[in-house]
Amino acid sequence: MELKDKVAFVTGGSKGIGYGIAKSLAKEGVKVAITSRSLESAGEAAIKLNKEIGQDLALGVKADVRHYDDLTKAVEQTIDKFGQLDFVIANAGLGHYANIQDLTPEQWSETIDTNLTGVFNTAKTTLDALKKTKGYFISISSLAGTNFFANGSAYNASKFGVTGFTQALMLDVRDLGVKVSTIMPGSVASHFNGNNPGPKDDWKIQPEDIGEMTVDLFKMNPRTLPSKVEMRPSQPSKK
Fold it and tell me: Partner of 56 at 20 to 30 A CA spacing, among 44, 84, 90, 171?
């Protein structure tokens, strides 16, 4: 598929995985709406991306994925600006890691509302537009969506949910001509959970690697759908 002049909507796109995906798409000539809870962060990311690409392809939009109305407005802004919507990447996420004895109800709710309900909200608010273009929806889950670990009750629950939701969504909408996949990365060199990426993270998956995978999925022959893609570092760090 030729990607130039297609339109993408990336939640949580101001840094990390989301920004890596947005940049990879923009390099292919895709117009990209980058969302963030902060309009300032979204706008700064769009300006940065436009400078790096050398074209005016990115738009910064405020949207807190926990809130359906926020996403409705962000999608409307994107279509008003670019005229259509071809690709949606539900990437926004966060992590609270704690033993269940210490995990607070507020941390549980923020994790589930952002990581899981946020994907539902993103899918619901973009589906009509994707039906018009026979578009593609991708969620960013995690290997934590099939592999549980200590202190991960909230994060595991959210990502198990994202994996299951996205696979069910795929079955719901494939007869409408909309393709759906979930990408499940392992350790990524991103700003997730307060990390400051540096040389210590060179062994990890890089955000641009996930961007490259996203581009590959969009270019896949339409007769084939890789519905679930696991990604992991080829040489894990030996502690």
Answer: 90
Which active-site residues does the annotation give?
155
Range of the domain at 51: 7-231
State the total domains in the chain: 1
Residue 87, in any domain of the structure: yes
Q: Which residues contact 73 (CB under 8 A, 6 or more apart)?
A: 63
199 pLDDT band, cuts 50/70/90, is confident
> What CATH number does residue 58 fall under?
3.40.50.720
Max CA pair span of the chain: 51
For residues 85 and 213, what is the distance between their CA atoms, to the nearest angstrom? 20
Give me the residue label for tokens 């300032």.
40
Domain assignment of residue 236, yes or no: no
| Average model confidence (pLDDT) across the chain | 95
**Residue 119 CB neighbours (<10 A):** 27
CA-CA-CA-CA torsion for 199, 50, 231, 5, nearest 10 degrees?
A: -160
Q: What is the pTM of this model?
A: 0.95
Contact present, 34 and 58 (Cβ < 8 Å): yes
Task: Report yes or no on 237 lying in a domain.
Answer: no
Give a yes or no: residue 41 inside a domain: yes
pLDDT tens sequence across 159-195: 999 999 999 999 999 999 999 999 999 999 876 666 6
Band of residue 239 on the pLDDT scale cut at 50, 70, 90: low
